[in-house]
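Lecture 7 notes: from sequence to structure.
We start with the chain below.
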Amino acid sequence: MVKTASLSDAPQTPAPQGVEWRISDAPVPYDVAVAEMEARAAAIAEGTAPELVWLLEHPPLYTAGTSADEKDLIAPDRFPVHKTGRGGQYTYHGPGQRVAYVMLNLKNRKPDVRAFVADLEAWIINTLARFNVEGEVRYGRVGVWVRRPDKGKGREDKIAAIGVRIRKWVTFHGISINLDPELDHFTGIVPCGISQHGVTSLVDLGLPVSMPELDMALRDAFDEIFSVPPPQD
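Predicted structure tokens for the same chain:
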């Protein structure tokens, strides 16, 4: 029997700027995660809970964002498929992939959706740079990509995905970075509707990074991008 975890399982770790960090060591069912995020986002909007970054893994599953096209679901019976309110198309989540759900109040930061997505991209890129991986963004292709000259001229693979939802200027859902997921599991969908490029991971790139090392890099890079300056006197 697979042990599962929820938001309440992990200890709270307040960051200096008041953002709480939590890590779930056991896989979290997707519907449990969404319910937890919905409740926490509402509490943040009401001012009764601090902002939160929740690091976790999911059991193997596919999610369908608000722009998902059914023809991109190649193997509908392979894993559970969850329709979700986040933006984007189909994506895969599973063991070996670090999911970071980000619940921030943009009213206290910058109430700009595009700027928030750009910050998420920068967060991923800065995290990958700590492992000497050059992540890049591409116009019209959501997520973060790495060039693969070893795989052929012009080849680029996706290493991280982004899908967010914002309600009352509070964010939820977030990002995922492929550390060492089973890459074959991505073949059951057209990831994010993009069939011309592949999917990679840190281990696939030859980097034996551990999950705690990735978590530490995410934490450090987050503070660079999302720290809130102290109020002016």
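Points to note: Residues 194 and 232 are 45 Å apart (CA to CA). The radius of gyration is 17 Å.
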